[in-house]
Amino acid sequence: ISISRADTRTSSGDLLKLGIMVLLWGFSWPAMKICLLSISPLWLATIRFGSAALCLFLFTGMRGELRLPVKQDIPIIASVGLLQMMAFTVLGLIAMTKVAAGQAALLAYTTPLWVSLITVVVLRRSLEKSQLYAVIAGLLGIVVVISPSLLGWQSAAIIGDIMLLGAALCWSIVIVHVKQHPWHGSPLILAPWQMLVSALPLTVLALMTEGVPQIIWNAQLIGLLTFIGPIATCFCFVISLAVGRRISSVSMSIATLGVPVIGLFSSMLFLGERITLAIAVGVVLILCSLVGILISPAKMGGQQI
């Protein structure tokens, strides 16, 4: 998230950090899939954001930047915490109990496509012709990816696909909100509170619906949870904030397109998942769509989204 004008120059150090971030986010998808064998989706989401929030509170505290947010930033704290973090993660984790991790990563990262549609439908702003073609290609790609579930009428897989698209839509709403919100505190100062807003209701919901979790702890599970929470969530969030303030939002968005690609191939490597013809065609269509959307931003009265 960037709230200042980004520098279009990208240093080799920033490129390295972006590469690390993309790799870690991509690898987190098969890692979460493995954890779901031992932990329910709600408790996994709770542990992820609870541990990440703790790390961020410690990090900002040691930097002397820990402070209460002002009331003007409460809407963006609620939006990011409840939609981008809680809803996106819970929907994605539940979906991964029904579909492959690689497919989940691909559908969940269609957010630029939905941002473009929100821009047209809600904000009443026009798209350039090239961007319209990109949106159509993205929609076709989604249809191709989920077509085996639809043709075979695999109800569980269909529900999982719908959840993933819902997760992407939740994140897209936050992206639009972030652009419209008048920021008072910096993203780093607000980040631990956003994760706390996500972790607290998740804890209550998990306790109410599932009770105290019965988890069989082992070294592998502890290692994966450490990777998913403090590293892939907290550490990568700090990277995205630091680098995102120095490069253009388009460059950052294009970089994150590597996440579903890494998610697909790491799922093949660690989980033995196979890339079907539908997934392969869908990947090409969706990635081409997202690149087209990001390099040709929508017109917003002379401004770009």
Write up what this structure looks like.
The structure is a single chain. The protein has 305 residues and is an all-alpha fold. The protein contains 12 helices and 2 strands, in the order ααααααααααααββ. It has helices spanning 12-35, 41-62, 74-95, 101-108, 111-121, 129-151, 155-180, 187-210, 219-244, 249-256, 258-271, 277-295, and strands spanning 299-300, 303-304. A two-stranded antiparallel sheet has the order 1-2. Strand 1 (299-300) and strand 2 (303-304) form a beta hairpin. Helix 1 (12-35) crosses helix 4. The longest helix is centred in the middle third of the chain and has 26 residues, at 155-180. The chain is globular, with a radius of gyration of 19 Å.
| Helix content bin | over 70%
Strand order of the largest sheet: 1-2
Number of separate strands: 2
Helix tally? Answer: 12
Oligomer: single chain
Distance linking N and C termini: 13 Å
Order of helices and strands: HHHHHHHHHHHHEE
Which residues sit in consecutive blocks of at least 5 with pLDDT less than 50? 1-8, 298-305
Largest sheet: 2 strands, antiparallel
Question: Average pLDDT, to the nearest integer?
Answer: 86
In terms of structural class, how would the helical and strand content be classed?
mainly alpha
Shape: globular
Percent range for β-strand residues: under 5%
Rg measurement, Å: 19 Å
Summed up:
The chain is 74% helix and 1% strand.
Chain-wise SSE layout:
Elements: H1 12-35, H2 41-62, H3 74-95, H4 101-108, H5 111-121, H6 129-151, H7 155-180, H8 187-210, H9 219-244, H10 249-256, H11 258-271, H12 277-295, E1 299-300, E2 303-304
Antiparallel strand pairs: 1-2
Helix pairs in contact: 1-4, 1-9, 1-11, 2-3, 2-8, 2-9, 3-7, 3-8, 4-11, 5-7, 6-12, 10-12
